[in-house]
Amino acid sequence: MRKLALSGVALCASLMLAPSAGATNFFPGDPQFQVVGDITNGTVSATIGNAGIALGAFSDTFSFTIDQTGTGSGSLSTSTSIFQSPTDLDITSVIINGLLATKMMTPDNLSEFFSISSVPIIFGQLNTITVAGQSRGNGSYGGNATFIPAAADVPEPATWMMTIVGFGLIGGAMRSRSRTVRFA
């Protein structure tokens, strides 16, 4: 009983000290991948990004597994106030599990967006998101990904009826066999 009480206190303390699910802080030069949700049950979302990316080419790879089968989708963006300023970042590609995300630009060419949907996610399989591009010295990007589990296969009413009738016939056959009487 004492161990149970101590574990309950430890759990409450860890929940109070845990960071808020809505808080997203990207640290310079350190790619971040923050997950919200239970990877074994239900919808899962993640925030990815990097800030303060050094001058030159970069490639960030995020690897993860989800203990469900379903589909993933997401978007990623970067923007600058002045084209080719030190905070400008050009993303050349965003690839999720080998599928290339679609790139879109704003009319002023100061923001670029990447989006993708219906990416197959398989139970327990390693998944990757790779973001590659060119930084002019202090670039940053951020994005969101969402995983939606596949709908559970629920049998149709006709299948249920055939199963019930089948079990009934098997039970009836077993009962009629046990009534057979043998004389010596």
Automatic annotation (TrEMBL):
Pfam family name, one: PEP-CTERM
Signal peptide feature range: 1-23
Transmembrane domains' residue ranges: none
Domain named Ice-binding protein C-terminal: residues: 153-177
Keyword terms: Signal
Protein name per UniProt: FxDxF family PEP-CTERM protein
Annotated source species: Sphingomonas natans
